[in-house]
Amino acid sequence: MNKTVNQKAWFLVLPVLVLVAFSAVIPLMTVVNYSVQDTFGNNQFFWAGLEWFREMLDSERMWNALTRQLAFSAIILAIEIPLGIFVALNMPKKGFWASFCLVLMSLPLLIPWNVVGTIWQIFGRVDIGLLGYTLDKLGISYNYTQDFIAAWATLIVMDVWHWTSLVALLAYAGLQSIPDAYYQAAKIDQASRWKVFRYIELPKMAGVLMIAILLRFMDSFMIYTEPFVVTGGGPGNATTFLSIDLVKMAMGQFDLGPAAAFSIMYFLVILLISWVFYTVMTNLDKRDGV
Amino acid sequence: MTDVTTQPISGAKTVTPAATRRKTSRINGPAIVMGLYLLFLLLPIYWLLNMSLKTNAEILGGFSLWPRDLTFANYTKILTDPSWYMGYVNSMIYVVMNTVISITVALPAAYAFSRYTFLGDKHLFFWLLTNRMAPPAVFALPFFQLYSSVGLFDTHIAVALAHCLFNVPLAVWILEGFMRGVPKEIDETAYIDGYSFGRFFIRIFTPLIASGIGVAAFFCFMFSWVELLLSRTLTSVDAKPIAATMTRTVSASGMDWGVLAAAGVLTIVPGALVIYFVRNYIAKGFALGRV
Amino acid sequence: MAKITLDNLAHSYLPNPSSENDFALKELNHDWTDGEAYALLGSSGCGKSTLLNIISGLLHPSQGRILFDDKDVTHAPTAERNIAQVFQFPVVYDTMTVRDNLAFPLRNRGDDPKYIAQRVNQIAAMIGMEDRLNQKARGLTADAKQKISLGRGMVREDVNALLFDEPLTVIDPHMKWELRTQLKALHHEFGHTMIYVTHDQTEALTFADKVVVMYDGRVVQIGTPQELFERPAHTFVGYFIGSPGMNLFDATIDGSTASISGTQIDLGAGYTPQTGRTQVGVRPEFIKLSTDGTGIPARIQRIEDVGRHKIVRLDVNGQQIAAIADEGANIAADTNRIVFDPKGINVYADDWRVQPQQEAA
């Protein structure tokens, strides 16, 4: 669509600007402010320059948290995206069963995140949880508060349980937009099931899948509540992801300077990766639009 | 020249159920996949429900797949104790406030982005989206200080405004996608017919993107309802959300599993209701907009 | 290429059709000759898409059989029918290059790569896209994409039939003409059996050897464009084909004369007595204006000059009719009668054409 040039459109954007400025810019300035100052209490601050950034960059603690975070995001993306596509391909196309599946699949998405944590905390307990009890009876030693592997496995399965439906719903929407003629043409061309997927379904889903990957990446990168409830970051620091570490540092230890420097770098990493996604996405959009 | 690979089907003259037969055998694969997936989704929820209907003694006493000694005591406790049920009321209040604020400010902005080019529009759009990418953990402390300093700490509006951080960009994004699908000629025709911008927007344009508004509202509701970190940080007593209340079920006598499970089940109910009401929009909405 | 036989074919979208009205496609028995180009013409909802979908295997008919070269394919899946189809809007594989698009059906059948390369080049030359073979299909215009779909349909040499489902709907008017000419040329070159669904009579008449006119789920006439024009088998054909359509007059028939609102007309041929509603149909091209007091009384209402000729709108006993006069003709102001050219007179009983006695003999 050809858009008209109209500088007055700024007035329409103004409410958003004011609101977001209040809820994002001002707090962010506070963070920047802290990140370059030091304090000995009593609300006395003095200039510390980039000291905190240097300290955080040298801090093994932050690098470990970042590594864990990247590993976690990579694993859940590697599972949720293919699984979501697979589920979408198997969903009923229309009718009662389609709405039935849609409603049930949306359910985990609307459960408060701490309740998601609670559900899995209970579900995985050896004494009272179905999963933990069953594994224990099968002779598999499983304890997500003690064992590194069990803790990670629980968090990953929990995230897959929680978010795969979002990927599936987006992929499903992409599939729904494919006209029947494409499938008919593929039949006429004697294309195999794999080729139908590779050359018809996947290209048509590309746009929504980029959104799904972007959303899942961002949200998994910011994950806090669910692992906090289930493992509390343990055992040891095994599941201490960036957000958990940051909250520990800022709210627990009140190390405002390092926490602020940490925050800014954290935000920048997300921005950088998201910007790459966004660029790729808009380029895809443009090519589709021709 | 003819190379027909077809096997002639024995001279069936009338309707043969071949088509229907093929259909039933084809349905099985996907049905099994969906069955297993839904089982995987529902099993943990069932377990929560199961526990919420047991007494603590039964939960800890032995393992059972369904409640032997069915009790509603856990629910009764939550629904009669104000410190419990006010949690739900508080959550509902700020979620609804947030949804209304987000949609209201996002509508004109999305219209501007979908219809006009103006100085810095692309940068502004991207900057808005970056707020969706901001980790709540980064904002928790500054928010706490900001809202404390303006005297909004422990109010519903504070949480509603804080959640605008990620919901407004999302709403703008979804609505912009829907608005792009509405032909510009509709606007032009309305202006020629003498509609003012405001009247056109409310009378003509808004109904056209009703499903888009529905989808945006759904997502705002969803993300505000499920968030805990900010809502817990910004409240203490008066506006304390149910999710935060739930984190304090540890008492002197140990964990109160039954009540915790019942509270969890009750937090699923509003979400389930919302999904049920928008069930026809989910498919349509997901398909129409970009999301 | 194959002969297509429709044997006792009918289809209803309802599970248990009881009356004839429940059928979207009423019983059909036809042989479509190998190598001919057929156009399925009719307004929307007449059953032409239903028929096409049965031929392509998307739908299974509720009754009857369909045979390709005497082989029953009624329940064969689409892939086994070895047909090609071009759809209403371009269906191309966006992420593939033009070359891969054209090669796709051949590769799926595991043909020899050398043969594929040679065949693709040949087809590309035919649709005029040799210079864009390595381009991705994504960025192409709608008519270029439609050409690719067309090429993909032609690429297999042994297809039983080529089906077109209103393929020019999304094409710009000036490109429509070019594509249609190209189609016609391709048909001459390869002699595929072609079936072309359209609601546009110009497209149908210029493209096809035989036009199949459908109305209300029924095939009302199969014939060459000339037959449809001169001897419409059903009043719908008369009305639908030609511009303006055929004029119909309620008449009583008695041997070789008809009486139209009191005026006796010579039909030029004898007819057996008919029951039901009898009508005389005359195309505007066969109506002459007269001033000499013979013929049916008529009053000129207006004259439309369309360039090639003039369309004269007349009022005959309260009924609107049209006549065509030469562009140069001088239309007398005192015109008060019309006469029919006996060549162009058809007689209809309950909407179906009645054969005159000599013709029947």
TrEMBL record, chain A:
Residues 66-277 form the ABC transmembrane type-1 domain. It holds the Pfam family BPD_transp_1. One of its GO terms (biological process) is transmembrane transport. It comes from the Bacteria. The chain crosses the membrane at residues 12-36, 70-89, 96-123, 149-175, 196-218, 259-278. It is found in: Cell membrane. The keyword Transmembrane applies. Its main location: membrane. It is a multi-pass membrane protein. Keywords: Membrane, Transmembrane, Transmembrane helix, Transport. GO terms for cellular component: plasma membrane. Belongs to the binding-protein-dependent transport system permease family. This is Carbohydrate ABC transporter membrane protein 1 (CUT1 family). It comes from Yoonia maritima.
TrEMBL record, chain B:
SUPFAM superfamilies: MetI-like. Keywords: Cell membrane, Membrane, Transmembrane, Transmembrane helix, Transport. The chain crosses the membrane at residues 31-49, 92-113, 125-144, 156-179, 200-226, 257-278. One of its GO terms (cellular component) is plasma membrane. It comes from the Bacteria. It is a multi-pass membrane protein. Its main location: membrane. This is Carbohydrate ABC transporter membrane protein 2 (CUT1 family).
From TrEMBL, chain C:
SUPFAM superfamilies: MOP-like, P-loop containing nucleoside triphosphate hydrolases. InterPro entries: AAA+_ATPase, ABC_transporter-like_ATP-bd, ABC_transpr_FbpC, ABC_transpr_MalK/UgpC-like, Mo/tungstate-bd_C_term_dom, NA-bd_OB-fold, P-loop_NTPase, Transp-assoc_OB_typ2. GO terms for molecular function: ABC-type ferric iron transporter activity; ATP binding; ATP hydrolysis activity. Gene3D superfamilies: 2.40.50.100, Nucleic acid-binding proteins, P-loop containing nucleotide triphosphate hydrolases. Keywords: ATP-binding, Cell membrane, Membrane, Nucleotide-binding, Transport. Residues 4-241 form the ABC transporter domain. The keyword Membrane applies. GO terms for cellular component: ATP-binding cassette (ABC) transporter complex, substrate-binding subunit-containing. It comes from the Bacteria. Pfam families: ABC_tran (PF00005), TOBE_2 (PF08402). The keyword Membrane applies. PANTHER family: ABC TRANSPORTER ATP-BINDING PROTEIN (PTHR43875:SF14), MALTODEXTRIN IMPORT ATP-BINDING PROTEIN MSMX (PTHR43875). Belongs to the ABC transporter superfamily. This is Glycerol transport system ATP-binding protein. The lineage of its organism: Bacteria, Pseudomonadati, Pseudomonadota, Alphaproteobacteria, Rhodobacterales.
